[in-house]
Every structure is written in C-alpha cells, then in structure tokens.
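Task 17 of the worksheet. Students: predict the tertiary structure of the chain below and write it out as structure tokens. Keep your answer in the requested format; marks are given for formatting as well as content.
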Amino acid sequence: MRHPLSLSEHRKAKKLSQATLAEMLGVEQPTVQRWEAGTRQPDLGQIGALADALGVEPGALFRSPTALSLGPKLWVKGSVQAGVWSQAYEWAEDEWKSFTGRADITSPIDWRFGLEVWGDSMNEVYPHGTIVECVSVFGGAEIAPGKRVVVIRQREDLEYEATVKELVEQDGQLWLRPRSTNPTFRAFALDVNEPGIIETRIAAVVVASVRLE
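Model answer:
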C-alpha cells in the first residue's frame, strides 16, 4: 500500500497553486487536491510527472519509504522533435539507451519504446532531453483527448516526419496542442494536412516520462 504523499509541501516550496500544477500535468485541479488529501493516489506515470514538475526525485514525494514495482527494461530508440517536424528514423542499435518502463502497462514489449524529446514546444511537461515512454497504437494504446501522443506524417516524397503533442478536442474536432513557455507554438487540427503532406496520424501514446542521468 502506498504511503500518503508529501505533495503539498513540495508544491508550496515551488510556489505553485494546485490549479497551476494541475495544468502542468494535464489533470483537473480537484485531482491534485485529492492527491494532497490522500483520498486518491497518482499512478506510476503521474508520480514521475509530478517529480519532474516539482524538481524532486519520485521517492521524495512519499512521507516514508515505499517500494515501487520495477517495470521492464525498455530502449530509447530515437528522438522526436517537439514543435518542429523532423525526419523520423530509428537510431543504430549501438546508440540505444536503456531505461525502466512502467510496471503496470500490459502492452506487449515489442510495441513499447522510448524517445528522447528535443526542442521546447512541450517544455512545460517534457524539458529538452526528457525520455518519453511510448506504446504504439499497434500495441493497444488508448487514443483519447488529454493524452500526449507521438504524431507521424508522410510527405509527398514518401519520407516520414514526427513530433510530440497533447491531443485535445475542440468543437468535436481533434487538435494537437503544444505545452510550451514559448508563445510562438500553436495548436493544429489532426485531420488538416499542410501542402505536400499525404497523411497525418497518431503513431503512439506517451504513458510516462523520465530524465536519464
């Protein structure tokens, strides 16, 4: 059983309101309130996101030592440019970096991987260099508004480009929204392709994020 979180102290030390922290994490303010009250617990992915947002190690969020189940060994196999479409390709195998994935994800290992986030269009949640753990849509990833997703588009020259964004719904249409301190980044509709683009689709869902030393 998990011990109560010392979330309130860390949040106040960072001079963040519950509403601001909730916005950073992509949850509602009452969710943060319940975490602090101990009536609800964040999942492992949310604990990692909380630690990143507050600038602490995940273990520091607990009032007493807690053993967390270790997940499988996964591999960072490439990078994804936040805010700028960049050519999608897989690194050479000898360049892969290992990390520990979430223990509670049931998708097959073959459809789970990590990507290193570059750029600043998602820096409110994923600072440059953050590793995002992803589950491919072929591995049963749930695509829903509020999720952060890896998006792939195919150009007319048949090359592929990728980026990472937050999926939101506005007036019945799906949009891809940046989460950035840089105001130049703008949301765009998932089903509206720019000239020279054949198709834009969601390739994977982000389920956790980590920062490697």
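Marker's comment: The longest helix spans residues 44-54. Confidence is low (pLDDT under 50) at residues 64-68.
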